[in-house]
Amino acid sequence: MSKRLVIALGGNALGKTPEEQLSLVEGTASTIVDLVEQGYDVVIGHGNGPQVGMVNLAFEFSANNQSGTPAMPFAECGAMTQGYIGYHLQQAVQRELSRRKIDRPVASVVTQVVVDKKDPAFKHPTKPVGMFYSKEKADELAAQTGYTFVEDAGRGYRRVVPSPLPIKIVELPVVEQLVKSHCIVITVGGGGIPVVERKHGDYQGVAAVIDKDRASALLALELKADMLVILTAVEQVAINFNKPDQQDLSSMTVGEAREYIHQGQFAPGSMLPKVESCISFVEHTEHGTALITSLDKARQALEGMTGTLITR
């Protein structure tokens, strides 16, 4: 029986523009097909922070400049980015499969993820989206739109939106059927389109971005995956990051990871949600493990040569 991997792709696997993304996904596809060749059933999640902000801003600018284009709700912007990122990924993977003469279907699923409308995150937006601005431009846009902007990792100011916790993946039964047929599935794009459940059992989109690592961890749990793999910009998780005594970690238990979190070792906007997502998956599975590594080292990490393995 094939082992199931849920892979969460970080922003370095995608681009800030459609043109850049088309170039970057070729390398991403090569890594994914490497894993397929090793016999894994692969399910792919991905982020959309820069893309959803870009789409939302473009519609708003157009609507506010008398073009006749309507403003687009944030949830619909999320759905749009799921569509075009999924399209780029599945085309790149299909090309790589064809090049290697591997007969395997690829499909993107427009995926809704239920959140709690009472989640405290709605009162405290933290998820950066869109492009970087100078402080002056951010202040100007905040005055015009009422949006919240924060300084992001010394690179400038970005808009932040609520990032509620994922509760349920609406299209999970569809994803399960596709995985059972050994389809490479792209799902929970951008963490999923955030929706709240209404009293009649239907759903309504909300203005938020779900963390893609947390959504991928939930997906891995629900699919009973053997491993959650979070691909990011660094080869291994480190403690004392960027300090003279930085230590790269080849492995850590859930208990050790919690202690490092208690020490404040992981930055809230970058490594912390990745480690917390791994903990969430590993501690709720009997045999599942999690792995954090870089995109270009994924194959070596799965062979135990690098990366940071999180176990019970």
Q: Summary?
A:
With about 300 residues, this protein is an alpha/beta fold. The protein has helices at about 20-35, 50-65, 75-100, 135-145, 170-180, 210-220, 255-260, 270-280, 300; strands at about 5-10, 40-45, 105-110, 110-115, 125-135, 150, 155-160, 170, 185, 195, 205, 225-230, 240, 245-250, 250-255, 290-295, 310.
Q: Which structural traits does this protein have?
A:
312 residues; alpha/beta; 8-stranded mixed beta sheet; 4-stranded mixed beta sheet; 23% strand; globular
User: Judging from the principal axes of the Cα atoms, what is the shape?
Assistant: globular
Number of domains: 1
Q: What is the element string, with H for helices and E for strands?
A: EHEHHEEEHEEEHEEEHEEEEHHEHE
According to DSSP, the number of beta strands is 17
Notes on the protein architecture:
There is one protein chain. The protein has helices at residues 18-37, 49-64, 74-99, 135-145, 172-180, 212-222, 254-262, 271-282, 298-302; strands at 3-9, 40-46, 106-108, 112-114, 127-133, 148-151, 157-161, 168-169, 184-186, 193-197, 203-205, 227-232, 238-239, 247-248, 251-253, 289-294, 308-311. The protein has 312 residues and is of the alpha/beta class. The longest helix is centred in the first third of the chain and has 26 residues, at 74-99. Strands 3-9-2-1-12-16-17-15 form an eight-stranded mixed β-sheet, sandwiched between helices. The chain has a four-stranded mixed β-sheet with strand order 8-4-10-11. A three-stranded antiparallel β-sheet has the order 5-7-6. Helix 1 packs across helix 3, helix 2 crosses helix 3 and helix 6 runs parallel beside helix 8 (271-282). The chain is globular and about 55 Å long. 38% of the residues lie in helices and 23% in strands. It has one domain (3-110, 169-311): 3-Layer(aba) Sandwich (Carbamate kinase). The model has no long low-confidence stretch (mean pLDDT 91). It contains nine helices and 17 strands.
